[in-house]
């Protein structure tokens, strides 16, 4: 079978830093080809070159065996190459059909007026091909993220795309929506469309991918059949080293001092009569399905959302927490699941982001910022947390997800918080960086920090937690010590509606 796309010896650099170094890649018709590597490995850069977003500097791209020059996204579209970015690129005020054909709308007589009927009919035919039940006239802003993604796929197919690049397509989808996406992908495969699938989620890739290509540090490492290649082998190729199996010891923290007590916490329908304790040096995992209320509990304790009822005690003393500033004053830090919007000032550098949490401490007697102190403090945390950055003056937006997460952690460590809430701490982070974050959380617990980890990944909760609290529909439905916890037991509790265990 001849490849739709072949990439040979492709190289690309940014500001003298080599992002791609003699990379090769091949995509067959009707194939789902997983592209894997740690953050910064060059996956997205390679695909952006293929999609005409970045120009290549060396090497060649062949489509149907013929060398081509792809110097713009429009050139890629003409060759049948479409890309679905992780950040969806749609206009919420326009309908699904208008988003699909924007700039290419069918016109009526004399070409003066938009032919809405023809526009909607063309969109309907694409949805029909995808076996998707969606009214083309629906404003995109009224659709779920999953349906918006389907509109993006339909937009790519409207260019008669034979190559579809998907960058972390399931990052914001629940399991039912993932199943829908996989159904669409299998239909595209049956029509001979080749799909490049970039993801960190091994379990998904095992379900959907035919082959996997691994990249590391901008270089091609290997291509292998997905079905016969073990997860450990893939991870080994990605990180270039054996990953130590980092997991929390099954420690008994039941005699440690209680640092946080929550009793009867209630907020609307999202949080219903939640009670728990958190002890010094403990990692308490919060498990549950999407919408269970875990993030809402953390936000309520942190003062980001107003509570209707309940009591919070810190070190045995009742705490009145009406705002995040109150929570920080009580030694509570919260690392949001959306670090780019709520955890970082992405336009600022590493040094400033770390210092922001405790800026008054860097103001001297002359009311001027002590920049030397800020720099040395930032450099200390960069070294301590092994943050990979050229310098502390580097803008954080240019760092990988794992290193951005470490900067958020550094911010709260500088504030010397005793209680830390980590909400989806490894979302969008590659396996190597995940292992480093796990190691860091264990080290913080060993120092006596009290930690709550909220995660949708059950293996992560099981791997990290000393104790696991399970929620369903706003309520705590059970508590499991780490020795007894299994994925099956957690899922049983996560699908119950009433409290079954007291603690």
Structural description of this entry:
The chain is of the alpha/beta class. It folds into three domains: 5-239, P-loop containing nucleotide triphosphate hydrolases (Rossmann fold), CATH 3.40.50; 249-331 and 417-433 and 444-503, Rossmann fold (3-Layer(aba) Sandwich); 339-416, no CATH class. Helix content is 32%, strand content 24%. It has helices at 43-50, 73-78, 96-100, 116-129, 145-157, 175-190, 202-208, 231-239, 294-301, 324-329, 339-342, 350-356, 371-384, 401-414, 431-446, 458-464, 487-494; strands at residues 5-14, 17-27, 32-36, 58-63, 66-68, 81-84, 163-167, 194-198, 211-216, 219-225, 258-267, 271-279, 283-287, 309-314, 317-318, 332-335, 419-423, 450-454, 467-472, 475-481. A six-stranded mixed sheet has the order 6-7-8-3-9-10, with helices on both faces. It has a six-stranded mixed sheet with strand order 16-17-18-13-19-20, sandwiched between helices. β1 (5-14) and β2 form a beta hairpin. α12 packs parallel to α14 (401-414). It is globular and about 75 Å long.
List keywords for this structure.
Rossmann fold; 3 domains; 6-stranded mixed sheet; alpha/beta; 20 strands; 503 residues
